[in-house]
Design goal:
This protein is α/β, with parallel strands linked by helices. It contains nine helices and eight strands. The protein is elongated, with a radius of gyration of 19 Å.
Length: about 250
Amino acid sequence: MSLQPVLLVIAHGSRDPRHAATVHTLVRRVRAMRPGLRVETGFLDFNVPSVPGVLESLAAERVREVVALPLLLTRAFHAKSDIPSVLRRAPARLRIRQADVLGPSPLLTQALERRLHEAGLSPADRSSTGVVLASAGSSDPEAIAVIADIAREWRHTGWCAVRPAFASASLPRTEDAVRELRALGCAKVAVAPYVLAPGRLPDRIARGAAGADVLADVLGPAPEVARVLLERYDAALLPRVAAAGA
């Protein structure tokens, strides 16, 4: 049995089968990047296996340590409330560390760039293209502020302009940000979904991108996303490593 703590990737789940399929593809990429690390997947809702079910199975196998990693881009309700609540009800024999959410991270910005280039933008388009950073949205002010900060920092890498937009809970909507970039005089407008997997809200982003020139794919199993997962896993273990070397 591996002495490394198990990495448990916790996804929200969705009725849309594309969501779970994308999560599983991402997890397979993480496993390929770190052979020997046991990586499990659990869902909060809609899909199986459930997070409590995975934790019960690990406890039955006499696993001792788990790093629970929220497959989330911002620290909103699920990271602050739902996931800690589920983890508190885990079997007592399990020692669980909750890792940080994935964003913000320069690697995620690189993944956004990858998706835009795959959608047809070239480096020559950069200075004339306005980008809508389209996220799912949240009622949590901290999460909204993070998206705004990412858009502001990304603008400084040479794009004509970058504007945040949200599919729910917050404004502006994707279509409003597209119109704003047109009004600013950007020759092209691209929409970059800052979401991990397809589903209802990403579909809403896509509908709002109807007036744009380019719509990038979701982040999905981009290699940069897989690298962030491993970074968060390693960071969650830093106190353990420090204690072992003391």
